[in-house]
Amino acid sequence: MAEWWWSIDRELLGALILLMTCGMVLSFAASPPVAERIGLSPWFFIIRHALFCLLALPVLIGASLMNHRQARVAALVTLVVSLALLWATLRFGTEVKGARRWISFLGQSVQPSEFVKPAFAVLGAWLFSESMVHRNVPGKIIATLIMFSIVGALLLQPDIGQTALVLATWATMLFISGISWWIIFGLAGAAGGLIAGAYLMFPHVSRRIDTFLNPEGGGNTYQIDRALQSLLEGGWFGRGPGESIAKKLIPDAHADYVFSAAAGEFGIIFCMVLVALIAFIVIRAMMGAQRQTSLFARLAASTLAIQFAVQSGINLAVNLNLVPPKGMTLPFVSYGGTSMIAIAFGMGLMLALTRTKPEERMVTGIPTYKSALAPAE
């Protein structure tokens, strides 16, 4: 544990725990009205959110204790299990609003796609790095086939938001590993084609896009209207805990729209601090990744950081009505057990992959046990 403490990025670890604490505080502010509206105890979501945090913290610490080989093995096992559950969800999952995204596992409802994302980021990074070091290893092809397997299951659920995040993860690895601009332009064109295909194939996607582009056209804009109202009524410093009026009317104030609920009670300045904290986590992780001598560690840690940034950015953009609504949680802040634990697993792996090596600590003046016990020359 002492070796872990000296090698871990303590500022990054502290920022992640602080973000989790902010989520717990916002749960007190946003959850009670939602629970009362559906006939539950005002403490229902608060207690469950606290339990999720208590489970997520040891997952975060435990994953950060792994070495690179253990991180790869953990990612492989997690990906195999979660991918199998992802496909099993199509047959045995619970259908909610026309989509099958949840499956009962050991008495608990689990969303396998949440665990697929960090596992694919780490395992895919290893395959990409192997193909870059050993030209005869088809790592990129294998990673691409895994990506298609994940995307195929997600589209059949359907879950367009998670599909976009998995594709962004794969594109990140492809971009960081080095590709030509022609491929980048081709991927951009393919992304446009996928959006057009989703619009034509999935009615709920077309409805959301049509409503987003034409709010006056008769679509259901109740939730986003209340979210924007909450953002505006809070002003710079907010109305105070429990005083926001619009927050009490947002159906998902504790989950996808927790950022809007926070703005109504604590103000825009608090929201800016929250965004700055997320930005610090991403930038700090990217800087730590670039210091790694291992190509796998650099690629995997960078991909996990960008995955965290993209998910946060999508949630914030939905709250600000910059993109059509989609079910995407704000990491460590929104309510959701599967999401909380899966993100903790991914961030723990990111911490493990950005730990400093003994020779790097000697440069910074931090002694190791080996150097302390070695005889003087």
UniProtKB/TrEMBL annotation:
This is Probable peptidoglycan glycosyltransferase FtsW. It holds the Pfam family FTSW_RODA_SPOVE. It is an enzyme of class 2 (transferase). It comes from Devosia yakushimensis. It is found in: Membrane. Its main location: membrane. The chain crosses the membrane at residues 12-31, 43-61, 73-90, 137-156, 168-201, 257-283, 295-320, 332-353. Its EC number is 2.4.99.28. It catalyses: [GlcNAc-(1->4)-Mur2Ac(oyl-L-Ala-gamma-D-Glu-L-Lys-D-Ala-D-Ala)](n)-di-trans,octa-cis-undecaprenyl diphosphate + beta-D-GlcNAc-(1->4)-Mur2Ac(oyl-L-Ala-gamma-D-Glu-L-Lys-D-Ala-D-Ala)-di-trans,octa-cis-undecaprenyl diphosphate = [GlcNAc-(1->4)-Mur2Ac(oyl-L-Ala-gamma-D-Glu-L-Lys-D-Ala-D-Ala)](n+1)-di-trans,octa-cis-undecaprenyl diphosphate + di-trans,octa-cis-undecaprenyl diphosphate + H(+). It is a multi-pass membrane protein. The lineage of its organism: Bacteria, Pseudomonadati, Pseudomonadota, Alphaproteobacteria, Hyphomicrobiales.
